[in-house]
Please model this.
Amino acid sequence: MTTTLDLQRPSPHVARVWLNRPEVRNAFNDGVIGELAQAFASFAADDALRAVVLGGHGKAFCAGADLAWMKSMAGYDWEQNRADAQRLADMLWAIRNCPVPVVARIHGDCYAGGVGLAAVCDIRIAAQGVTFCLSEARLGLIPATIGPYVMRAIGESASRRYFATAERFGAAEAQRIGLVHEAVAAESLDETVDAIVAALVANGPRAVRACKRLVHEMASAPISEALRADTARRIADIRASDEGKEGVRSFLEKRAPGWQAGTKRE
Model:
């Protein structure tokens, strides 16, 4: 039974994962890391799933590492530190590899590992009052395990600044540098997230999964002859699939596609 997460399934197509340690502003510990990894591993095997929302209960999205957990690690040797960091890296990879889009619902504080948790999500929506901080350097540390995902979100230039300065910045700056896609009024946060989830659920389920794979596998690939051939193969595969045929037929016949039957706003 989960103890650090609140897992909800409002419909077969949507899962909601809430960090549920509001008393410590949803800070990470080994329990959170393990349960997130387990939850997203289960999502990977769920063919009905079309979208996941990741948020936090209480006043913050995630304030980074739990202080009590950090104290317990103070005496770790190198190998124990490496093993601990590997568990965090593996959890982030499990979220990144979730086959359906993961939408981050960000409010309150989003610090250190919390920034990494947000960055690994596919779509990131923040309330305008959110404070972000890559605070590791203040403690003499570096944002290594979260670094690949944060750098892909904000780019090299912003990473050079915010990794080294550990400055706090707001939602408008987070949107400017690409960490979040939208910064909205706090009272509109849930409405905006729900609208994105509804859009995801309305689209072809196989197509949405294929879109996520497409971006992950091609974003940094050179546009070579092999890549061009791969893109042609992918579009042929989806056009020839039952879902692709149904999507084109429904468009031409001016009706809703079959995968929208029984879906509703989540």
In short: The chain is about 50% helix and 15% strand. The CA atoms of residues 215 and 221 lie 10 Å apart. The mean pLDDT is 94. The longest strand covers residues 5-11.
